[in-house]
Amino acid sequence: MEVKYKDYFSFESIRDKDGEIVCYHITMIGTVEEAVRINDEETIAFGKLVIHNLDRRIGTLLELTGSRTYFHDHTYLEGVVNVIRFAAHKHHIQEVKEFTEGDRVLVEGRAYIRDARDPSVRPELTVSVTGTFLLGRKRNLYRRQNLVPQEGIE
Fold it and tell me: For residue 144, what pLDDT is reported?
């Protein structure tokens, strides 16, 4: 069975009056990789979004910023995979803390470049969340395998 991903990734540069780039605004649709993690003080929430087959668009932004994604795999059976981390602050924590693994979500925000601990590794592109939308929950199709059809109901 071939899986068709309807993932999305776009970015636009926000410039000041002199034409200098101030930040990049990112919109992405993908699948939540694992449950969102919240720090002990509940002041920030972290998550990861899996995006399939949009390597050219993502690569353009990475080239402009001199950064990398959290994870990149071009040998994946169903196409290229990028995992981009996101961080939510303040009231956005409530929006993302309900996300679970497999949820399809839209995440908007500003690009944030995190320095790597190892200076030989490029910094990581993450997204500081400004808005989210839950598109759909993962359905467990395996539950139906245990059902036995009823016979003789009239």
Answer: 45
Q: Which helix (H) or strand (E) holds 131?
A: strand 124-136
Closest C-alpha among 85, 45, 46 to residue 69: 85
The three-state (H, E, C) secondary structure of 20-89, written as one string:
CEEEEEEEEEEEECCCCEECCCCCEEEEEEEEECCHHHHHHHHHHHCCECCEEECCCCCCCEEEEEEEEE
Picking from 74, 61, 41, 67, the residue whose alpha carbon sits closest to that of residue 121 is 67
Instruction: Tell the residue number behind the tokens 């959290």, with chain if given.
Output: 70
Percent of the chain with pLDDT over 70: 85
On the question of pLDDT at 44 being above 90, the answer is: yes
